UniProtKB/TrEMBL annotation:
It comes from the Bacteria. This is Replication restart protein PriA. It comes from Brevibacillus antibioticus. Belongs to the helicase family. PriA subfamily. It holds the Pfam family PriA_C. Its cofactor is Zn(2+). Residues 551-718 form the Helicase C-terminal domain. The keyword DNA-binding applies. Signal peptide: none annotated. Residues 288-454 form the Helicase ATP-binding domain. The gene is priA. Zn(2+) 1 binds at C516, C519, C556, C559.
Length: 811
DNA sequence: CCAGGTCACAAC
DNA sequence: TTGTGACCTGGC
């Protein structure tokens, strides 16, 4: 038996299957999709089985094949579908196949190859002599080499000699990080009659023991968790021990899932009565689910239009059809409310996957999926890889969010993967947004997705009234505060009415760089081409990209002025200003500083929900999905800070942001207002946002994109090169550019090579090429060939190249 | 002449 | 990615 295996060496040269002989004892265990350990060169590595050939005779010179060393799981973590999907991703995004595979699996499954030092039979007491290391190895038989290096630094140099003389040997081991949580449970060893007898025989004061036995009587056959007995009945360890020694109960270690939502009750909500619009959009979706064939929908619904109910209903119908559902959200920890709704509706049938989980928790949720214990997954980007076997529905909420694009290899977009998966499974894809990505909307208008509209809020709630304030006029009116008179007045009004508000600060532009007020000098990283960020906690200035840190200087290095200071973390400044203007105002500030601790996010939101704050103040993270009945005002401090970024999506992002923030206000009984402060009130993204007019924005923005040749009219590929020498990196970029230029279609534009907007990171200079194309059917193949040619050239140099298909970040 | 470092190359 | 062996440099 021969296994075809891709190994964990993520470079192009080894990006192909290698053949291994499967020894007889592994044959019953090994499967396509298995994780295995194989020898590779002088090492041992982790690999994945992508194919199995039963008939050895079919392959020539099998005698030269090495043996598979180990199969790491009894059930393969990769389903056939995931395997196929990873192969597609590797082609689509030009990444090594293993990298795509690893992106699909929980991080704890990634094995690390370690070198160990082992004792041979020749190592006896005598041979150990006075060496501490040899004695340690004599006792333990083996130690990881890294440990030896650390603990026996002075003897480390002698190791090669000992290996030569045959006392020691080296060996490779592949270890993953799988851990399983164990919990103690007690189980009764007595039948019912005996139990009652035993209760009677206990002395009167053995109250805890009696309690336990009584509980066993009630819960018959079931095991009781020791933790539960302690928490709910105050039963301590020792009575359990004595019951055990009497032979009445057994205390057992049982494996349990790490569940961050354990001990939480979720209230089951009644299914809502659907509005006519909800019914209207549900009809085609449910029909598609019913028919069990591929279909895709763009659900364009204004904020508060009740999209979630539509999703939930579609999921329920999918489950009824015996199929599974994936629900993607931008970043789930941001919307505990969403999790709550799912847990309430589908109970234990849901697994939740998001970045705030620990690796162990993530693994446990993932196992619920692969063991078929759940049928619904709610999660962020990577949840699209949930190892279901029969996905019938994929929902992407807030479809336009950029967090669906992964910014490291594999640089995939969850929307694109979802589309592939829906087609592959004859499933239904539903994408929802109040502000669809231009690409998506364009495809919908061309019929590639069916467009469904929900133009009104549930219960005919009016859209909030939007007030645009021209900050230039404020300045003329001698108002130099960051709050306009309008916003000031409305905050005061809400405070008086005891209603709540959300104040949003567009983080960018308000960043925390350090600048001299006298000469304008800004502190920059010595390794990277960007400004340093001020960190309050230890008064340092730090580089975002490479971690370079220096103490905050007291004098400007240029002009010696003392007026060098950081330009405050926006939110803190706003908070201080609010406190000054409105004494006694209760502000809940959400930013990186206040939400870094696990669970603090939810805690702050809960505080706000329960009315312990008047203002929720924050950055991007408060713009999405929050739904608080008493919020009647949304304020945006500086709408245009995102408008002037060197990014062709700047206007789109601004429009989305304004619409989303605006959508937080007046969702329930009370009417809402939105105040947008801006220096460019005439910009179309602001004008259309105030009127809640997506189609108009779409028209204007499409004109811009057409004029400038950006998506959706053109598709992009960004190729970035980096090297510590400018001439080398330039030559590399030109080599690639020349190769491509000769082979690209006439209509394709190749821009560059030019220096990247961030021209240096970690002492490496960066250049880039941008491809803009409309019709390039063989592009992935061409890029693969170009990469091969580039690598041929790159043999002597060490230029790093990354290819980003449909990039979001152009820096 | 050898220790120590650099570098291209292969990996089933 | 990483270990290996070929090759080079420099010190004696």
């Amino acid at each position: 038996m021969i296994a075809q295996i891709i190994v964990d060496v993520p470079v192009n040269r080894t990006n192909r299957p290698f053949d291994y002989h499967v020894p007889p004892w592994l044959r019953p265990l090994i499967r396509v999709g298995s994780r295995v350990v194989v020898p590779f060169g002088p090492r041992q590595l982790q690999g994945y089985v992508i194919g199995i050939v039963e008939d050895d005779e079919a392959l020539p010179d099998r005698s030269r094949l090495k043996d598979v060393v180990q199969v790491q799981d009894d059930t393969p973590p990769l389903t056939p579908e995931l395997l196929k999907m990873s192969e597609w991703m590797s082609k689509q995004y030009l990444c090594p196949w293993v990298t795509a595979v690893q992106a699909m699996l929980p991080a704890v499954l990634k094995g690390k190859s370690e070198k160990w030092l082992t004792a041979t039979d020749a190592l006896d007491e005598e041979a150990c002599g006075r060496s501490g290391l040899l004695w340690e190895l004599f006792r333990k038989r083996q130690l990881p080499l890294t440990e030896v290096e650390k603990q026996f630094a002075e003897e480390y140099l002698l190791v090669p000699g000992w290996i030569q003389s045959g006392l020691l040997a080296t060996e490779y081991q592949v270890r993953d990080k799988i851990t399983r949580k164990q919990q103690s449970f007690v189980r009764s060893l007595l039948d019912e009659g005996k139990l009652e007898e035993a209760i009677g025989s206990l002395p009167a004061r053995a109250e805890q023991m009696r309690r336990v036995l009584q509980l066993m009587l009630v819960h018959k056959e079931q095991s009781l968790s020791v933790q539960m007995l302690r928490d709910e009945y105050g039963i301590t360890r020792s009575p359990l021990k004595s019951l055990e020694s009497k032979g009445w109960i057994a205390i057992e270690q049982v494996e349990v899932y790490r569940d961050p939502y354990a001990n939480r009750r979720f209230q089951e909500k009644q299914k809502p009565v659907f509005t006519p619009v909800q019914k209207e959009v549900l009809t085609p979706i449910l029909q598609s689910i019913e028919s069990g064939t591929y279909a895709s929908y763009l659900l364009h619904g204004v904020t508060g239009s009740g999209k979630t109910e539509v999703y939930l209903e579609a999921i329920e119908r999918t489950l009824e059809k015996g199929r599974e559902a994936i629900f993607l959200v931008p970043e789930i920890s941001l919307t505990p409310q969403m999790v709550e709704r799912f847990k309430a509706r589908f109970g234990a049938d849901v697994a939740v996957l998001h970045s705030a989980l620990s690796q162990g928790e993530r693994y446990d949720e993932w196992r619920k999926i692969i063991r078929k214990q759940v049928r619904v997954v709610v999660g962020a980007r990577s949840a699209i890889f949930a190892p279901f076997r029969n996905v019938g529905l994929i929902v992407i909420d807030e479809e336009h969010e950029s967090s669906y694009k992964q910014e490291e290899t594999p640089r995939y977009h969850a929307r694109e993967v979802a589309l592939w998966r829906a087609k592959e499974n004859q499933g239904v894809l539903v994408m929802g947004s109040a502000t669809p990505a231009l690409e998506t909307y364009a495809l919908a208008t061309r019929g590639r997705y069916e467009l469904l509209r929900m133009p009104e809020r549930v219960g005919n709630r009016p859209m909030p009234e939007v007030h645009v304030v021209d900050m230039r006029e404020e300045l003329q009116a001698q108002n130099r505060s960051m709050f306009s008179r309008k916003l000031h007045e409305m905050i005061a009004d809400r405070l008086a009415k005891e209603e709540q508000m959300v104040i949003f600060l567009n983080r960018r532009g308000f960043s925390t760089f350090v600048m001299c007020r006298s000469c304008g000098y800004t502190m920059r990283c010595i390794h990277c081409d960007i400004s340093l960020t001020y960190h309050k906690t230890n008064h340092t200035a730090r580089c975002h990209y490479c971690g370079y840190t220096i103490a905050q200087p007291k004098h400007c290095p240029e002009c010696q002025s003392e007026h060098i200071r950081f330009f405050g973390t926006g939110t803190q400044k706003v908070e201080a200003e609010l406190a000054k203007l409105f004494p006694g105002i209760r502000v809940i500030r959400m930013d990186v500083d206040t939400t870094s601790k696990k669970g603090s996010h939810e805690e702050l939101l809960n505080k706000f929900r329960t009315g312990q704050g008047d203002v929720l103040l924050g950055t991007q993270m408060i713009a999405k999905g929050l739904d608080f009945p008493r919020v009647t005002l949304a304020g945006i401090i500086a709408a245009d800070t995102s408008l002037h970024l060197p990014d062709f999506r700047a206007a789109e992002k601004t429009f989305q942001l304004l619409t989303q923030v605006g959508g937080r206000a007046g969702r329930h009984e009370l009417d809402g207002d939105v105040v947008i402060q801006t220096y460019t009130p005439e910009h179309y993204s602001i004008i259309h946002a105030t009127k809640h007019d997506y189609p108009a924005f779409y028209q204007d923005e499409m004109m811009q994109r057409r004029r400038t040749g950006y998506p959706p009219y053109f598709r992009l590929v960004l190729i970035t090169f980096s090297h510590e020498d400018v001439p080398v990196v330039i030559r590399g970029a030109h080599t690639m550019a020349d190769y491509l230029r000769q082979r690209l279609a006439q209509t394709t534009v190749l821009l560059g090579p030019v220096a990247s907007p961030i021209a240096r990171v970690k002492d490496r200079f960066r250049f880039q090429i941008m491809l803009k194309y409309r019709d390039e059917p063989q592009l992935s193949d061409l890029l693969a060939q170009a990469t091969a040619a580039f690598e041929e050239w790159n043999k002597q140099q060490k230029v790093l190249m990354t290819i980003d298909v449909d990039p979001y970040v152009l820096l």
